[in-house]
């Protein structure tokens, strides 16, 4: 039976995002976020636009060229952001509530066969349920972007938080093996500390980084959940994170620094 936990995770995230939108002050809507080129309003517009598109609604006209837009997916995201920049905030919030309610209804009506069917996703062809797990991660991260920008605490007591962290951690083997590419036999641990702790240890064998079993790490990289998500989502400059002591390295520092520098290559 197909795992449908992503539906409750999306419902929780969208519900808290809506509540957050209703409490934001006028100036907070214009606060810049760490997502390049976007303020708080743009973050909400992105969530609204993506879910509207998944309902089969038409894309708005292309956006004006922007330095932070680097691919076709970014172009469509920017089109939705620009579409909402000069429209009333109340209308945007109402659209968020309407679109997410419609999406939850559509998801709950899908059969296991439909959820298991492969199709397009941001990380290549994958079952629709996997795509929705990516949506959980994306929506939860954007909620935290808004919290970060407006000085609110992050929400790790969310059913979406473990899913988001696991999704971001899922390609550590690729990053260590292909992006960092340390010598054969190197063992690396990445530890995420805090309310949703995670620890992944890999060893390089044959040019690939695979689960290390009980091997002791030669290099350990540890950080709080907030720092990990900001780095993995491309929100935080790796050098700044190291300079500010947000990341703790043990063992081979060159390998540890290279891992921190490449966390933004996680899916």
Q: Which terms summarize this structure?
A:
267 residues, alpha+beta, Four Helix Bundle (Hemerythrin (Met), subunit A), Nonspecific Lipid-transfer Protein, Chain A, 2 domains, 5-stranded mixed β-sheet, two-stranded antiparallel ribbon
Outline of this structure?
This protein is an alpha+beta fold and 267 residues long. It has 11 helices and 7 strands. Strand 3 and strand 4 form a beta hairpin.
Fold blueprint:
Elements: H1 5-23, H2 40-54, H3 72-84, H4 89-109, H5 112-116, E1 118-119, E2 126-127, H6 128-149, H7 160-169, H8 172-180, E3 187-193, E4 198-205, E5 208-211, E6 219-224, H9 225-232, H10 238-243, E7 247-251, H11 253-262
Parallel strand pairs: 3-6
Antiparallel strand pairs: 1-2, 3-4, 4-5, 6-7
Folded structure, characterized:
This protein is of the alpha+beta class and 267 residues long. It has 2 domains: 5-162, dinb family like domain (Four Helix Bundle (Hemerythrin (Met), subunit A), Up-down Bundle); 171-265, Nonspecific Lipid-transfer Protein, Chain A (2-Layer Sandwich), CATH 3.30.1050.10. It contains 11 helices and 7 strands. The chain has helices spanning 5-23, 40-54, 72-84, 89-109, 112-116, 128-149, 160-169, 172-180, 225-232, 238-243, 253-262, and strands at residues 118-119, 126-127, 187-193, 198-205, 208-211, 219-224, 247-251. The strands form 2 sheets. Strands 5-4-3-6-7 form a 5-stranded mixed beta sheet. Strand 3 (187-193) and strand 4 form a beta hairpin. Helix 1 (5-23) runs parallel beside helix 6 (128-149), helix 2 (40-54) packs parallel to helix 4 (89-109) and helix 6 (128-149) crosses helix 7. It starts with a helix and ends in a 5-residue tail after the last helix. The mean pLDDT is 94.
